[in-house]
Design goal:
about 10% strand; mainly alpha; 3-stranded parallel beta sheet; globular; Rossmann fold
């Protein structure tokens, strides 16, 4: 969820970004279409999945810039660009509330830092995007079953 929210917000300020639910799509796009001006942000609470392990192995092998956002403190000893968050372990939990809140907070923090240090070129893109969204928000007509 946090990755998708960050993706949408980065696009609003003029930064081309993508978020994926599907591991295979993420693997292909993040490695095949990667260039040195990109950075990948990977959210993983435990960092224990075989998919996460494979991704980071590929990132390191191909010298792909990445940040890892996790609650697993041992990742900081292995990788350079790791952001650690603390979780409140919950007994009989239905959802990972603590992880969601922490990941969303870090996602928002990343957005605010990027927005603070963005270039003038991004200002123009942001202004254009804001005008488009404002125009849409002022619409009084409701379209059912289609968006025009």
């Amino acid at each position: 969820m946090s990755a998708f929210e960050l993706d949408i917000n980065l696009q609003k300020i003029g930064i081309n970004s993508n978020a994926f639910k599907d591991f295979h799509s993420f693997l292909l796009v993040s490695t095949v279409q990667y260039n040195e001006h990109q950075t990948i942000i990977l959210f993983s609470k435990s960092c224990e999945t075989k998919e996460r392990k494979h991704l980071i192995d590929v990132f390191q092998e191909q010298k792909i810039n990445f940040f890892l956002i996790t609650a697993n403190k041992s990742m900081r000893e292995i990788y350079q660009n790791v952001i650690i968050y603390q979780t409140l372990e919950q007994n009989k939990r239905l959802v990972l509330i603590s992880s969601k809140i922490n990941q969303q907070f870090i996602s928002d923090l990343i957005l605010f830092l990027i927005f603070k240090y963005k270039s003038n070129e991004l200002d123009a893109i942001y202004d254009k995007n804001q005008k488009i969204l404002d125009g849409w928000n002022k619409q009084k007509i409701i379209f059912l079953n289609s968006i025009i």
